[in-house]
Amino acid sequence: MKLLVCISKAPDTTSKISFTENNTKFNEAGVQYIINPYDEWYALVRALELKETLGGTVTTITVGKADNEPTIRKALAIGADDAVRIDAEASDALAVAKQIADYVKNNSYDIIFCGKETIDYNGSQVGGMIAELLDLSYVSLASKLEVNGNTATLERDIQGGKEVVETNIPFVVSCAKGMAEARIPNMRGIMAARTKPLQVLPGSEAPKLTEIVAYSLLPEKAGCKFIDAENPGELFQLLHNEAKVI
Amino acid sequence: MATDRFQAPDYYLLDDLLTDEQKLVRDTVRAWVKKEVSPIIEDYSQRAEFPKQLIGGLAEIGAFGPYIPQEYGGAGLDQISYGLIMQELERCDSGLRSTASVQSSLVMYPIWKYGNEEQKKKYLPKLATGEMIGCFGLTEPDHGSNPGGMVTHFKDAGSHYILNGAKMWITNAPIADIAVVWAKNEQGRIHGLVVERGMEGFTTPETHGKWSLRASATGELVFNNVKVPKENLLPNKSGLGAPLGCLDSARFGIAWGAIGAAMDCYDSSLRYSKERIQFEVPIASFQLTQKKLAEMITEITKAQFLTWRLGVLRNEGRATTAQISMAKRNNVHMALTIAREARQIHGAMGITGEYSLMRHMMNLESVITYEGTHDVHMLITGMDVTGISAFRNDGK
């Protein structure tokens, strides 16, 4: 099987978030990047598991500049066979999806894996857009994936239960928690990653349909107010007059 | 033990000086430690038991002989990567780091540097995978800071050597499959011999009752007319310089490891002092707490740069024994001081196993003594800058 895993970088969850240029740009100073956890823990690891049981290859694809390469090397250290970096700005979801779709048109794959979302912008759009651009079926937010011959069976967590979906290969899947268990690379993997191929390709023309106008941080959490259990009237007063929710 | 919430301090953006591979190696070990070791280490330490099940994982993450060439089963990494691995292991527990640094620097290193090709092929690959665990016998009951006075000796008995003597305070001794033992020949010259478990007359009684390095196995090596095959003598170096060369490598790892312990104490202190409320405010708002925290991060930052530079010098083959000595002394003392201050910030909670501080503090009491005591390292620096040895006097 030829498996393609979309990998993007995301700020480490402990990063301090701030903005520059009048709140229109994310301040990258001092930010450590990691592989987007949904891409790494679930998409990449499930692809590796399928390769280990069914044979084949796992390629990662990243849209972005050279500063993505440390995270790509980590994906190779975890076990991907080779990597592709499309040398273009990952300006919005459609721009990324278009680059990946254009690459796949010339290099067919059986399954294209995405994480369910990146943990910075939480767009959750790229997988669906790739599927649409390639006219493939798309299963979003899957927590389980089994392949039998030409058919894949997937599970999705839905309100109050699970949904089981079947589709034919090829298809695009976005992977959620439950799909696999995170792997820590070992030293053999890190050493092997030194020499695994990382192909850098020029980006194709891609539309840029959205623009970020401004960022803002969430308001700081207000302190807790304690109300005497014997005095429910005060609670109603506060909810009505201060919080204005009733 | 509570969830491992460790966040590494990097006040002067030292990460910018590390290569991507060095960071990947470090982050890998950090992730492994958080997942596999942090949840269990306190329990093993309290019970004074070595967590043997971690040996396979230590090998997987490259903690055994990371700088040994790949042809002998090592990872072929540079010295800074080795240091970072030691830092991350000791961030969790000095005992864990001790197991790895003995295996790497005191067992694999002498076999790699002083052994012949057959010895390297026989032992190194198995030591790298953890299939074989090794220990290092230099210190004796009456010869600690003065190893050259050792009495363990061997005689040529024609087809083999006969080894007699005893070694003490040996990390990994009770679990070791092989021991690299330093002993004098009939001419009084020190040589290294590989002694294998199972050789008649070789025993490894465990040292009990330690208040330090409780999650690491320590013991003695006792040699009672042990027949050692001649091919087990390390042929390529002899004299006291041979074991001291191993100690250079191990002390370099300790200098990094101590930073890990200090980082953990600082990180825990910073978090605790912001969460702990007294007089209606976090204790981090008090000047005396801030003084402790400010001094901690200053000392950690200084130690990080000292040690990074030492790593560069070692990669270039230019680090001197005296430079390594300075880093070991400075960093371990720094870590021990920080552990004690961190314990104070945590108040009564600091004495429980809920936090790692007291364990670090007790562990570091060994680390400040083994592989050259704090005082001996001071004398090494003194001798290096003055050209006058102060190790010996006439006893009056």
Give a structural overview.
The complex is a heterodimer of chains A (246) and B (396). Chain A has 246 residues and is α/β, with parallel strands linked by helices. Chain A has a single domain, classed as Rossmann fold (3-Layer(aba) Sandwich), CATH 3.40.50. Chain A contains six helices and 13 strands. Chain A has helices spanning 37-54, 69-78, 93-106, 126-134, 187-193, 232-241; strands at residues 2-6, 9-11, 19-20, 25-26, 33-35, 57-63, 82-87, 111-115, 137-148, 151-158, 161-168, 171-175, 198-202. In chain A, the strands form three sheets. Chain A has a nine-stranded mixed beta sheet with strand order 11-10-9-12-8-1-6-7-13, with helices on both faces. In chain A, a hairpin with a 2-residue loop joins β10 and β11. In chain A, α2 crosses α5 (187-193) and α3 (93-106) packs across α4 (126-134). The longest helix of chain A has 18 residues, at 37-54. Chain A starts with a strand and ends in a 5-residue tail after the last helix. The model of chain A has no long low-confidence stretch (mean pLDDT 94). By secondary structure, chain B is an alpha+beta fold. Helices cover 49% and strands 13% of the residues of chain B. Chain B is built from ten helices and nine strands. Chain B has helices spanning 20-46, 55-60, 79-92, 94-114, 117-129, 241-275, 287-315, 321-345, 357-367, 374-386, and strands at 134-137, 153-156, 160-171, 178-184, 190-196, 202-203, 218-229, 277-278, 281-282. In chain B, the strands form three sheets. Chain B has a four-stranded antiparallel beta sheet with strand order 2-3-7-6, covered by helices on one side. A three-stranded mixed beta sheet of chain B has the order 1-4-5, with helices on one face. In chain B, strands 8-9 form a two-stranded antiparallel ribbon. In chain B, a hairpin with a 5-residue loop joins β4 (178-184) and β5 (190-196). In chain B, α1 (20-46) packs parallel to α3 (79-92) and α6 (241-275) packs antiparallel against α7. The model of chain B has no long low-confidence stretch (mean pLDDT 96). The chains are: A alpha/beta (246), B alpha+beta (396).
